[in-house]
Amino acid sequence: MNAKAGQKQSQRILGIDPGLNVTGYGVLETTGAGLSVCEAGVIYGRSRNSLKERVFEIHEGVVEIIESFTPHVLALEELYGHYQRPRTAILMGHARGVVCLAAAQHGMTVRHYPATKVKKIVSGNGHAPKAQIQLAVQRELGLRTIPEPHDVADALAVALCHYYLNQNVAEKNLTSRSVGQQEK
């Protein structure tokens, strides 16, 4: 809480949609007035480079974002439970691993969310296509244009999911404390 009673302290949420070739990111700032986008973009792992070089590029990009924006929490999309190609899941695990490493090196909390939950929270449809997520993120954040590429929209969607789920928990805790105080 801020010095002023009832006023929430601003926080930053870093949302990441990990990928070996393109990793989307979005930094949201929460204030008493709502949400705003600090920055959103992509980190490219040059596809012709070796795996070790790509994961290094992802790690360095995430570290740069963390050091520039000092987010309080990292919201990260989980791997899908069922991949038709297990090798894809293994490769995606590398990208998620270096993102988690960067967060750990900076003492950040990491929250993991399944893609279907993110889609359901943001768009109302747990199986929403990329275009629907882009439109939902644009609407929720009041953006003038659709966030592109879709990796950016996915990263912002993960950050939004964390915000909404955290907001509901905070409101429930506040409500239960208020009710408990009234009963005394």
Write the CATH homologous superfamily. Ribonuclease H-like superfamily/Ribonuclease H
Largest sheet: 5 strands, mixed
Q: What proportion of the residues is helical, as a percent range?
A: 40-55%
The SS-based structural class is alpha/beta
Shape: globular
Average predicted local confidence, pLDDT:
86
Summarize the topology.
Elements: E1 11-17, E2 22-31, E3 34-44, H1 51-69, E4 73-77, H2 86-105, E5 109-113, H3 115-123, H4 130-141, H5 150-183
Parallel strand pairs: 1-4, 4-5
Antiparallel strand pairs: 1-2, 2-3
Structure description:
The chain is an alpha/beta fold and 184 residues long. The protein has one domain: 2-Layer Sandwich (Nucleotidyltransferase, domain 5), CATH 3.30.420.10. It is 51% helix and 21% strand. The protein has helices spanning 51-69, 86-105, 115-123, 130-141, 150-183; strands spanning 11-17, 22-31, 34-44, 73-77, 109-113. The longest helix has 34 residues, at 150-183. It is globular, with a radius of gyration of 17 Å. The two termini are 24 Å apart. The relative contact order is 0.17. The model is unreliable at 1-7 and 173-184 (pLDDT under 50).
